[in-house]
């Protein structure tokens, strides 16, 4: 079984870099929305004391200004780009690693110097993505080809086939199914929240028509609606639930065809086709977010 530590150091670097960028991006995105909603709430406060009213107005303006600053910070730090590209790069390295470990294209059994070819591909990944790999490669376990990768590669055809189908193909199938269901549930939940916020905005506005002494909180709910829409747009719940479901179906077909393979030559091509399918989803995943290198 290929564990996290058994993958190349470059994979672990890109993976940790992407996850760190993701955490930072989501944190600042949430913080920006929080500032926006808080500013909206503060701005609706009806303070009779004129002096306190000025302070409240200044506070509301400061909160909105803070949201604007955070928005510019997210834009110029390019955290979203680092998150997406780092993830796509990590998945590409993982794909090449599995190709090597199970003797898939282009690391067939007949190819000489496969370790050198693998290391060359790692160097190419680094050369093509230097601006995104800002951290250093971990000093511990700085291998390109780990002992476990070699162990799987040197195992029998049946063992390699079983390992690949269970640990790679089936693992991908489970992941895409799980994420498809997760995004569908999140889409429904946030749609429900949006409907509630819209309804509250409508109700409070109708109350104001008949009672002008009622505190005008319509703008608060309108702001909440905007924040909910911004969040669901950023997370792409509906789009991902659909695309992941399609990918899961494709992988299930790949898994079925893999079980029928009984010779090494067909397995070479099968691994190449399977990894091409995984890589295609990663490429589309990157393109869907309009990230340009």
TrEMBL record:
The residues that cross the membrane are 25-43, 55-73, 189-208, 214-234
InterPro entries documented for this protein: SLATT_1, SLATT_3
The lineage's top-level taxon is Bacteria
Q: Any idea where the SMODS and SLOG-associating 2TM effector domain is?
A: 8-161, 164-285
Sorted UniProt keywords: Membrane, Transmembrane, Transmembrane helix
Q: What protein does this entry describe? A: DUF4231 domain-containing protein
């Amino acid at each position: 079984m290929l564990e996290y530590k058994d993958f190349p150091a470059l994979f672990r670097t890109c993976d940790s870099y992407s996850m760190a960028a993701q955490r930072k991006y989501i944190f600042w995105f949430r913080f920006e929305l929080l500032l926006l909603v808080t500013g909206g709430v503060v701005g609706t406060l009806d303070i009779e004391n004129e002096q306190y009213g000025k302070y409240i107005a200044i506070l509301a303006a400061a909160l909105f200004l803070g949201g604007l600053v955070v928005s510019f910070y997210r834009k110029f730090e390019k955290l979203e780009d680092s998150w997406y590209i780092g993830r796509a790069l990590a998945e590409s390295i993982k794909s090449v690693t599995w190709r090597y470990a199970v003797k898939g294209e282009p690391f067939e059994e007949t190819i000489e110097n496969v370790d050198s070819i693998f290391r060359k591909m790692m160097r190419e990944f680094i050369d093509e993505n230097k601006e995104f790999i800002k951290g250093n490669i971990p000093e511990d376990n700085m291998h390109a080809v780990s002992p476990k990768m070699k162990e799987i590669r040197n195992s029998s055809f049946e063992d390699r086939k079983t390992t690949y189908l269970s640990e790679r193909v089936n693992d991908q199938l489970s992941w895409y199914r799980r994420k498809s269901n997760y995004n569908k549930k999140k889409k429904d939940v946030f749609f429900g929240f949006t409907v509630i916020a819209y309804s509250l905005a409508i109700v409070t506005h109708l109350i104001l028509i008949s009672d002008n002494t009622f505190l005008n909180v319509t703008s608060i709910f309108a702001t909440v609606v905007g924040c909910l829409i911004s969040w669901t747009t950023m997370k792409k719940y509906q789009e991902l639930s659909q695309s992941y479901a399609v990918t899961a179906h494709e992988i299930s077909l790949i898994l079925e065809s893999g079980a029928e393979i009984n010779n090494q030559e067909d397995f070479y091509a099968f691994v190449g086709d399977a990894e091409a399918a995984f890589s295609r989803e990663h490429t589309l995943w990157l393109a869907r977010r309009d990230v340009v290198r």
